[in-house]
Amino acid sequence: DLIVPYQDALNLLKARLDVLNHSMYGNKSHPIHNIQFRIKQKASIEEKLKRMDLQGSFMNAKEHLQDIAGIRVICYFEKDVELLAEQLRKQSDLILVKEKDYITNPKPNGYRSFHMIIEVPIYTSTGKQIAPVEIQIRTIAMDFWASLEHKIYYKFEGNAPEYISRDLRECAGIVGQLDAKMLSLNEAILEAKEKQEHEREEKIREDEHH
Ligand code: 0O2
Q: Residue 95's CB: how many other CB atoms inside 10 A?
């Protein structure tokens, strides 16, 4: 029962993200590749509270953790991440508690992602409740890197050999370049497509004229 408000908050936010996904660029394209969501495991909650020198009780979790409910939104391009975060900020009934821009300021290990903590209003039969949700918004490429880093971190329990950490940081740089290149390629594709359409219409007009 204690998890129910977090689950409700996830469902409500998921619906809002679906609406943004089909409305942000009209029917031309969609910013979101996929959405994952999870409720933090009991063991993970206890471990995080322990790291904060707190006892693993539900009251402590409720009071001190803002990521019991988590959504990961994987976008195609870096620009989609920015626009999606902007759209969420505009929803006046959602309370933005915190933002962390690890895209502009990557972590020293190379991690890149945009994080938001948002409080979601939930209207139940007994009244209004508020539950926080951590939203991580990142590109497919950033997610690819983060998944591998997560695996390596756990494999070495945080003590990966220096050459592995160094190579991973280098990969983060390559992933950043790849994101930039894919974005400009997408812009070039859209421009070329528009030019082609324009030329086709011109030709139809000319043929009609003759
Ligand atoms: P899990 O298992 O994913 O839930 P804060 O209390 O806000 O100062 P916190 O909670 O670490 O610090 O917040 P932050 O920095 O926004 O990170 C939250 C989540 O982002 C983490 O959750 C990870 O999911 C992800 N993350 C942050 N840094 C890294 C990183 O260097 N590599 C990878 N792969 N993921 C990262 P949890 O609770 O740590 O883990």
A: 13
Please tell me which residue in 134, 157, 199, 201 is annotated as part of the active site: 134
Q: Which atom of ligand 1 is nearest to the CA of 40?
A: 4
- What would the pLDDT profile of 89-146 be if each residue is shown by its tens digit? 999 999 999 999 999 999 999 999 999 999 999 999 999 999 999 999 999 999 999 9
Q: How far apart are CA 92 and CA 83, in angstroms?
A: 16
Is residue 102 within 8 Å of residue 114, measured between CB atoms? yes
CB 143 within 8 A of CB 74: yes
pTM value is: 0.91
Is 202 marked active-site?
no
Contact 113, 172 (CB under 8 A): no
Distance 106 CA to ligand 1 centre (A): 13
